[in-house]
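Regression report. Comparing outputs from two consecutive submissions.

Submission 1:
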Amino acid sequence: MLRNSLSAGLLGLMAAQPIGRVLLTSLWPARGVYADFSHCRRVCRRFRMQNGHTDPEAIQENFHSSTQRRPCDYPVLFWLQQLALESDLAVFDFGGGIGQTYFQYAPLLRPGAITRWTVCELPKSVELGRKLAAERGADRLHFTTSLEDCAGHQLFIAAGSLHFWEKTVSELGQRLGGFPNHVLINRSPMSRNDAEFITIGHSGRFATPLIVRSRTRLLADFSSHGLRLVDEWTVDKWRRLPLFPKLDAQYHGLYLCRNRAMNADHPATDS
């Protein structure tokens, strides 16, 4: 135990200094901490790890894994059902792959509740998603590469995708032309000590840079757009960095709204 404490203390001291972070990252690049997304991408290329956001095989794998319902999906479904009972919904799905969030949730909502579900994605996912929507006859599922197409939607959802946005959440809102009145975030990593840092998300031969955000800054950015927190839940998923033990990050989900009071009947849920 003493040895573990000494090791953790030494790692903490090294990680607190810029040169120490560089050294620790060089020892284990796949679990390192980077100054920016560009540096992170260069490391991925150096180790010949392919971009999981543009590889058709990775896109298909993500679709199949994301359509399997997980405990953390139930808070999202709860709020979708609540909103769908109040009015019809047009949903803007940021980073929604080839439609996996739509195919998971839409069949469980009241008939006709979704008037339009727009997935904003990279070109390859848009191409594959449009093909899949046509094959399945999903005429309310649409795809775009433009954030500006968010106009006219009542709900913004980012399921497992917000941490791939390279800039601040406030800047994302500006690019959207303003967030809709309702925002659902799921499976987004937040650091234990409120730090923000960039690391590598990888699965097999695929790798993608991602940002672990500060919860405090995240909520402040949403607040600057008039959105306040209504509900929050934890996800049974962690991003572990063994050489940076103070930067372990758990994944979270959030529901934010402009005009809804805190819901006392649906407390934050451990998933």
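Submission 2:
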Amino acid sequence: MKFLPRFTQWMVILVLALAVFSASQAFAMPQLIAFLKSSPAAADLTCPPVSNTFKFTSVYGTVLLDGANAPMGAMVQAFSPRGDQVGCAIVSTAGLYGVMFIYGEDNSTTPPIPGMRSGETVTFTVNGGLAQTTPPLIWYPDINVNHQVALSAATPMSTPTGTATPAMMPHRWP
């Protein structure tokens, strides 16, 4: 390798090292992929689809759930005042949600795409629980601005399902 320039020598060494590492790890990759796909949390790591439009803003920040950093895999969703989901992000670092695009309404299509309208306040949830926002986000299609918004939510209480009451049996008198 003496005839190769120093940069090329390092590239050859790097490629060889990666090839050896990849070959030694090849047996473990299928098992790792199968494990990740079978993990109960794997299904929770995707957002429901959000309709993209040419009008949007972006937001990022800290996120608390029940007073502690929201765990990895927590879902942060944004909603319009009409209940349309306009943004979604998955927490990939505990306590932080990355840049989430929040989309505006587009009436130029048929059918129109629902979304935010200028001047409306965005509502956020974390794992389904309503989040308090600091500061509140008033939506405008300011595509060149990233808004920092801190979120804090409580895990929503599950509503117990009622237990069926046995039907009254008519009393038979002897």
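Expected: both submissions complete independently.
Actual: both completed, but the second showed a warning that disappeared on reload.
Relevant detail on submission 2: The helical segments are 6-25, 29-38.
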